[in-house]
Amino acid sequence: MISLFHEGDFAPCPKPFNLAAHVLAAGAETPDKIALAIVHPTGAERWSYARLIAAVRGTATGLLDAGLKPGDVLLMRLGNTVDFPIAYLGAIAAGIVPVPTSSQLTAREVTKIIDHLTPKAILRGDGVPCPETDVPIFGPQIYEAWHGLPPAAYALGDPERLAYIVYTSGTSGTPRAVGHAHRAIWARQMMIDGWYALRSTDRLLHAGAFNWTFTLGTGLMDPWTLGATALIPAAGTDPAQLGLLLKRNDATIFAAAPGVYRQILKFPMAPLPKLRHGLAAGEKLPDTVREAWRAATGGAIFEAYGMSECSTFISSAPSRPFRHGTLGTPQNGRHIALVDETGTPVPIGTEGVIAVHRSDPGLMIGYVGAPEATAGKFAGDWFLSGDKGVMEDDGQIRYLGRADDMMNAGGYRVSPLEVEAALADLPGVQDIAVTDVQVKEGVTVIAAFYCSPEPLDEDALKAAAAERLARYKQPRAYIHVEALPRNPNGKLQRQRLKDRF
Q: Which of 7, 372, 444, 452 is the 20 to 30 A CA-CA neighbour of 209?
């Protein structure tokens, strides 16, 4: 048997189609229902579906009145506010192509984006870095006033046309502009069924910022597509307060990066009787965190794997529980395989690259302005993720990490995730990450960076590792650190560990 999953094609996207119209259709049927609550310990700012839809369609009118046309590119330089999703959907409603970007980008980094995409306009929030440019820039006094304008008609058209662009660093380290079609939102129904088990009655609290694509999709677009309620913590919310916010706002589903779960678990958790389950993505969820969450809340965390080019497509769910050490299975309707460098699916139980067939409706159109880079990501009909994995007999996929994260120890290829999982529950270890480091020219060893209140006895750590791992997988160095380097969304940055060493 080969490592291939394809149990029938997903239903085709209707024509004509508009992503924003699809997201807001269910809410239009329940205009008085709360679409969004921005929550903090002393209250919440609430947006009904009627108010949200009016702001989105008014923004579409404002953009068109400002001279933008369908197909034009709009660069979004907005902070962690509700203006972010309103502008995003407002642009798409008008057929304009938004480019959501992190507010943490520097002016120099934004200059490269402007040079590459030549946007027709920029929306800029107060204090968000942006270079001097001839491109028209609209500030909050302008784009917030658009909320009250008469509603624009949705720009319907071919679901294959460009809808939005997001940036990813990819495996090369060079940021790429990922172009997605309007059909991408239609394909996310496979996630709603195969990961979230989301219902229209749910209240989903996402711990990320508005201007993170994980929040934008899982925390906002998908709940709104079903007419559910999205809950977003106010900017600056301390992780210690998230448990309280979950309880006070009757959250039924919680979504966050694994690092956020790790932060929450440092504090006492009140009972959460309304919470059905948690969702995790962004990096591999350690089993220690999964079990600690179950012990603290009584509930499960369902994990998903994906990438900017195809969102999430492998996951566990309440109806498809994970097996220990795996990510879950490909979502129904997907066309997924584990392949070798030629694009040929490998046998079951054999290491391969996680790949998505070019026919998958959630797959990107391509890297904007970079056809050679797009072509280079394919082997035959398979889009190569750059991540390694193994498909088991029952279709569950065991994740081995990025191909460029794989360590080489004495000629053996070793997954850092395997070593971390083996050592994560050692007494005194609060957090741990491993990577290979160069100790001299041509010589690399595995090093473990760990967090604990005080440095631990290195001989004891080595003895414990010897009981759990083959010798070639055992770290040769243990470095005590106050905290592991993570980006603002909680994702581990292994290269900074190498640089520190």
A: 452
Structure tokens at 78: 């907005």
* Phi, psi torsion values for 368, nearest 5 degrees: -65, 125
- 469-478 confidence digits (pLDDT tens): 877 788 999 9
State yes or no: cis peptide before 16, omega within 30 of 0: yes
Contact indicator for 164, 181 with CB cutoff of 8 Å:
no
Sequence-ordered list of residues with C-beta below 8 angstroms from that of 473, at least 6 positions apart, any chain:
409, 412, 414, 418, 419, 422, 446
Separation of alpha carbons 89 and 97, rounded Å = 10
Sheet containing strand 176-181, edge to edge, reads 162-168, 176-181, 366-367
DSSP letter for each residue of 12-52: PPPSSB-HHHHHHHHHHHSTTSEEEEEEETTEEEEEEHHHH
| Separation of alpha carbons 353 and 344, rounded Å | 10
Nearest to 19 by CA among 148, 143, 160, 195: 160
**427: enclosing H helix or E strand:** none
State how far Cα 345 lies from the chain centre.
26
Cα–Cα distances (Å) from 412 to 406, 436, 471, 472, in that order, read 10, 12, 11, 7
Give residue 445's identity as a one-letter amino acid code. Answer: V
279-290 pLDDT, tens digit each: 999 777 888 889
> d(Cα 434, Cα 424) in Å, to the nearest integer?
11
The pTM (predicted TM-score) of the whole model is: 0.85
Beta bridge partners of 3: none
Which amino acid is located at 469 in the chain? L
Asked if pLDDT for residue 412 goes beyond 80, the answer is no
User: Residue 266: which residues within 8 A CB-CB, separation 6 or more?
Assistant: 239, 240
Residue with tokens 């924003």: 20
According to CATH, the superfamily of the domain at 4-391 is ANL, N-terminal domain (3.40.50.12780)
Using DSSP, state whether 354 is helix, strand or coil. Answer: strand
| Model pLDDT for residues 255-281, shown as the tens digit of each residue | 998 888 988 998 988 899 999 999 999
Q: What is the pLDDT of residue 486?
A: 86
Q: How confident is the model at residue 200 (pLDDT cuts 50, 70, 90)?
A: very high
Q: With respect to CATH, is domain 405-500 assigned 1.10.357.10?
A: no
CB 259 within 8 A of CB 484: no
Euclidean distance between CA atoms 442 and 351, whole angstroms:
26
Residue 108 burial by Cβ neighbours in a 10 Å radius (0-12, 13-18, 19+): exposed
At 358-407, the pLDDT tens digits run 999 999 999 999 999 999 999 999 999 988 999 999 999 998 877 767 78
Number of H helices, E strands in the chain: 16, 27
Is 86 within 8 Å of 55 (Cβ atoms)?
Answer: yes
pLDDT tens per residue, range 72-99: 999 999 999 999 999 999 999 999 999 9
One-letter amino acid of 241: Q
CATH 3.30.300.30 positions along the chain are 405-500
